[in-house]
């Protein structure tokens, strides 16, 4: 598990990454304090643990966008270690899984940047599976665009087109929910802030304020085919 020594102040990166990296040591100290006071499986300790993972995930995202893949992978491994075990509290476990979906998304961006399209597709599909399992529908349009971009890069244009259609279908259903005042404005903004396929899309919404609520309700009438029917392969 990552420790504060990994982010000693004299090792903090310069420029835009500094603010992101500087947020990690105090969160780690708070995490250790909660573990000591309340125990490792307490609500306080596990929430602080996810705060650390969230901060590291943000730093990794910035490194992915800067094509600093070795540093990003190092931080993503730390996120993986912090989120690998299920939590007894349902709300915290849901946030843990959301963070893992974002971690897998970043891994997919790394593999795509390295030209490893099949590996990227596996990571992206695992991220999509988690988002579907959690019913976090505002993030689904971007997930489908991610998959479509990777499938197209791999020559699977029919499947790519299908994912693009699923993205549009999800956006339409979400807009209908928003029109009925069933979707909060923040979720609507997340859903409409889509990124171009050539850019590293962002799904970072699993921070301290995110929990179960109206934005996380699955779309009842929307039927989404499984990854097996979409032609993806060898996803663990």
UniProtKB/TrEMBL annotation:
Region spans: Disordered: 207-236
Gene3D superfamilies: Tetratricopeptide repeat domain
Organism: Eutreptiella gymnastica
SUPFAM superfamilies named among the record's database cross-references: TPR-like (SSF48452)
Highest rank taxon of the organism: Eukaryota
Lineage, broadest ranks: Eukaryota, Discoba, Euglenozoa, Euglenida, Spirocuta
Low complexity biased stretches: 212-223
InterPro entries: TPR-like_helical_dom_sf
Name this polypeptide is given: Anaphase-promoting complex subunit 5
């Amino acid at each position: 598990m990552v420790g504060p020594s990994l982010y000693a102040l004299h090792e903090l990166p310069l420029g835009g990454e500094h603010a992101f990296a500087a947020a990690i040591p105090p969160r780690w100290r708070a995490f250790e304090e909660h573990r000591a006071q309340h125990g490792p499986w307490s609500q306080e300790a596990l929430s602080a643990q996810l705060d650390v993972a969230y901060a590291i995930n943000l730093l990794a995202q910035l490194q992915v966008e800067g094509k600093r893949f070795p540093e990003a992978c190092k931080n993503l491994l730390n996120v993986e270690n912090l989120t690998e075990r299920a939590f007894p509290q349902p709300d915290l476990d849901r946030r843990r899984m959301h963070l893992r979906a974002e971690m897998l998304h970043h891994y997919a961006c790394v593999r795509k940047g390295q030209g490893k399209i099949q590996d990227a597709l596996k990571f992206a599909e695992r991220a999509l599976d988690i988002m579907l399992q959690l019913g976090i529908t505002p993030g689904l349009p971007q997930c489908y665009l991610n998959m479509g971009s990777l499938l197209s890069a791999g020559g699977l244009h029919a499947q790519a087109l299908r994912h693009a259609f699923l993205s549009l279908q999800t956006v339409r259903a979400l807009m209908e929910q928003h029109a009925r005042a069933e979707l909060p404005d923040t979720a609507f903004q997340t859903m409409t802030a889509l990124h171009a396929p050539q850019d590293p899309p962002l799904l970072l919404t699993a921070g301290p304020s995110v929990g179960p609520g109206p934005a996380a309700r699955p779309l009842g009438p929307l039927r989404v085919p499984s990854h097996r029917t979409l032609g993806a392969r060898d996803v663990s």
